[in-house]
C-alpha cells in the first residue's frame, strides 16, 4: 500500500477508517483558522493540510491535541474518514471520504495505483533535469531495526523545474545552490520522496531526519521558512460515483513567499478542482505547471 513523506506516517495511503469524538470542544481547535477546502461534494472532501498538523491521533505524538481530522469534521459538520496520509511536516492536498463506503472505494483506488500524485520540493544542490529513482526502501515501522526489515520496491520520477545559486557560504562552499523539484511517487513507501531524494544526494530543505541541519537553520531563520519544503500539489483519481477528479493547488504561506523570493512563482500550479465525465486520454495533472 502506498505512502509518502514524514515521521509517523507516509506519503499517501492508508485505509484506516477512524473518527474521533474527543476534543470537539477544545478551545485551541475552535481558535484555529478555517481549513482551506479545495473541493467537496456529497461523497468526499479535499482539503489543504497545513505543515505541522497531524492527520489524526498517533502514539508517537501522544501530547498533541489538534488534528486535521477533527478540525475538518468540526468545520463542515460531518464525519470524515481518512483515505491516505501525509506526514506531519508535509503540506498539501488530502482526500477524506464522507462515509466508510466512500473511504473504502477511494482507498482501493490508491492501492490499485490509479491515483496520480504530484509533489513539489526544494532540495539542496542542482537536481537532475529528469530521472527515475528506483531504489528499494526498507520498511520502517519502529518494531525492528531497519536493517532487519524487508526491502520494498520504491519508484519516484523527479524533474528539476528551476535552480538558484546564492552567493553565500552556508556550508563548505562559497556559493550555495538549490533546486525546485517535481516528484511523482509511483509506489507508496514510508517517507519515500524524502528518502529517495536524500539517497540521490539532494535532500529536501527542512527535513530534520534526512537533511542537513545547517541548511535547514539557514532557511528557517534567514529566509524565514522554518518548515519541510515538501508539498502535495496535485492529485488525479477516479471519483467513487464515476468520472475523474483533477485537483491542484500551490503551497501557501512561507513556502509561497520563498518561491517569490527565488523567482519561482511561475512554476507553481494553479488552483483547480474539476470533475470530468471520464478519464482524459493524457493526464491533466501532467500539464498543471508546464
Shape: globular
Average of the residue pLDDT scores: 85
Question: Which structural class do you get from the secondary structure elements?
Answer: alpha+beta
Strand content: 25-35%
Note poorly predicted spans.
1-25
Number of strands: 13
Note the total helix count.
Answer: 6
Q: Kindly, what is the distance between the CA atoms of the first and last residues, rounded to a whole number of angstroms?
A: 29 Å
Largest β sheet strand count, sense and barrel closure? 11 strands, mixed
Series of H and E elements: HEEHEEHEEEEEEHHEEHE
Rg, rounded, reads 18 Å
Write the SSE topology.
Layout: H1 27-31, E1 36-40, E2 44-49, H2 68-76, E3 81-82, E4 91-97, H3 100-111, E5 116-124, E6 130-134, E7 137-138, E8 151-152, E9 155-166, E10 176-185, H4 192-200, H5 213-221, E11 230-238, E12 244-248, H6 253-262, E13 272-276
Parallel strand pairs: 4-11
Antiparallel strand pairs: 1-2, 2-4, 3-4, 5-10, 5-11, 6-9, 7-8, 9-10, 11-12, 12-13
Give a written overview of the molecule.
This protein is of the alpha+beta class and 290 residues long. The chain is 19% helix and 27% strand. The protein has six helices and 13 strands. The strands form two sheets. Strands 1, 2, 3, 4, 5, 6, 9, 10, 11, 12 and 13 form an eleven-stranded mixed β-sheet that branches. A two-stranded antiparallel ribbon has the order 7-8. The chain is globular. The two termini are 29 Å apart.
Structural key phrases:
single chain, 290 residues, alpha+beta, eleven-stranded mixed sheet, 27% strand, disordered N terminus
Amino acid at each position: 500500500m502506498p505512502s509518502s513523506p514524514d515521521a509517523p506516517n507516509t506519503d499517501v495511503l492508508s485505509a484506516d477508517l477512524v473518527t474521533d469524538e474527543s476534543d470537539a470542544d477544545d478551545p485551541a481547535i475552535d481558535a484555529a483558522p478555517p481549513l482551506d477546502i479545495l473541493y467537496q461534494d456529497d461523497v468526499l472532501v479535499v482539503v489543504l493540510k497545513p505543515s505541522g498538523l497531524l492527520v489524526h491521533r498517533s502514539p508517537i505524538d501522544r501530547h498533541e491535541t489538534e488534528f486535521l481530522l477533527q478540525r475538518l469534521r468540526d468545520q463542515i459538520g460531518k464525519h470524515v474518514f481518512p483515505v491516505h496520509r501525509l506526514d506531519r511536516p508535509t503540506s498539501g492536498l488530502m482526500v477524506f471520504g464522507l462515509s466508510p463506503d466512500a473511504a473504502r472505494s477511494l482507498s482501493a483506488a490508491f492501492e490499485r495505483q490509479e491515483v496520480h500524485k504530484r509533489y513539489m520540493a526544494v532540495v539542496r544542490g542542482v537536481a537532475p533535469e529528469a530521472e527515475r529513482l528506483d531504489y528499494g526502501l526498507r520498511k520502517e515501522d519502529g518494531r525492528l531495526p531497519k536493517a532487519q526489515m524487508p526491502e520494498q520496491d520504491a519508484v519516484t520520477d523527479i524533474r528539476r523545474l528551476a535552480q538558484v545559486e546564492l552567493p553565500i557560504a552556508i556550508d563548505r562552499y562559497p556559493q550555495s545552490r538549490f533546486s525546485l523539484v517535481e516528484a511523482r511517487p509511483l509506489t507508496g513507501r514510508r517517507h519515500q520522496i524524502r528518502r529517495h531524494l536524500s539517497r540521490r544526494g539532494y535532500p529536501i530543505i527542512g527535513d530534520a531526519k534526512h537533511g542537513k541541519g545547517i541548511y535547514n537553520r539557514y532557511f528557517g531563520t534567514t529566509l524565514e521558512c522554518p518548515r519541510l519544503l515538501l508539498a502535495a500539489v496535485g492529485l488525479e483519481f477516479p471519483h467513487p460515483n464515476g468520472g475523474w477528479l483533477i485537483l491542484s493547488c500551490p503551497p501557501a504561506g512561507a513556502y509561497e513567499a520563498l518561491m517569490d523570493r527565488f523567482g519561482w512563482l511561475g512554476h507553481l500550479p494553479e488552483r483547480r478542482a474539476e470533475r470530468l465525465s471520464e478519464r482524459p486520454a493524457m493526464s491533466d495533472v501532467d500539464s498543471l505547471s508546464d
